[in-house]
Specification:
The chain is α/β, with parallel strands linked by helices. It has 14 helices and 15 strands. The strands form 4 sheets. Strands 3-2-1-4-5-12-13 form a 7-stranded mixed β-sheet, sandwiched between helices. Strands 7-8-6-11 form a 4-stranded parallel β-sheet, sandwiched between helices. It has a two-stranded antiparallel ribbon with strand order 9-10. The longest helix has 21 residues.
Amino acid sequence: MGKHLLVAHGGGPTAVINGSLQGVVESARSAGFDGKIYAARFGAEGILAGDLIDLTGVPAATISRLGHTPASAIGSCRRKLTDADYPTVMETLKKFDIGYFFYNGGNDSMDTCNKVNELAKTEQLDVRVIGIPKTMDNDLDLTDHCPGFGSAARYAALSAAELALDASGLPIHVVVLELMGRNAGWVTAASAMAARLTDCQVLTYLPEVPVDEDRMLADIERAYAKGKGLLVTVSEGICGLDGKPLADTGIVDGFGHTVPGGTAQHITDQIIQKLGLKSRAEKPGLLGRASIPYQSSVDREEAYAVGKYAVEAALKGESGFMVAIDAVRQPAYSSSLSLVPLAKVANVEKKFPLEWIVDGNQISDAFFDYALPLMGDEFPEYALLRG
């Protein structure tokens, strides 16, 4: 068994990814782990380059600040490893005498984890491999939800509510809010919370349902005519009836995914040109996944817990698994952790349930029953005086 531990981040950071890193480091220390604790600098790039950060002697006070540090403290990347990369990965594990490997990421990262685990077995390299779930998109399978989602959902809900109050307080234009979510609409669905918190009209469009642009414009015109203000919230990756994104940057990221963008502006342009209404496009972008002021306390605590659990499982001899969150919501919310096989979650994308989308642009109560406990503290009650 190798003597040392390696943790890496993959994909887009979240508001709580460093909380999982904190859980890894503090769990290893509390267990009396006597090897070195390494982190790969910029994820897979650092592993390939043998560029590791030694966290072993980092003061406890610094590690404790990870829970409220946004983005990735050790660096992440969108490098999708190829078959030609894996021999180098294995050489790095051997060179640094790694016995415990933890990859914190989403679908593609779990695929990397699974391949490293299988190669370690093939090469008879005694390495325990555990995946730590992370994605604001909430699209990992076999887990109730993913760390990062609760905070992103809280940001989407409160930001949408603030925009909705502005739109209804000065109802002279249609406000279109674009939120992150290439193929899965979990975060954008949370923006529909604005309809519960304000007196504004809210229409929400997710990538799971192709958009008929003519019908969308008709619905926008009808909702705007009610005179209460209108907020339209959209996932960046929504597509038309032809299956093509309404807006496409033409860029492909390191994982081979098309990078969407400009959807809100496209819809705004259509509203102005075809309906003759004023419209504004808003896109918080990375703020939606990095905001610490909007961080969910539940999300932060669970992110820490999955990092801690991963180390505990590996030290007990487990390998080839991802940590999953199991949750119950009645009579009160609580969660527990378990292990699911990496091979069953790698590259599997969990979409938003179609039955939670009503009339193509409304989100059902079932989603909020699911999501509200994950968003943390109570939402504010606004003073609505216009009647």
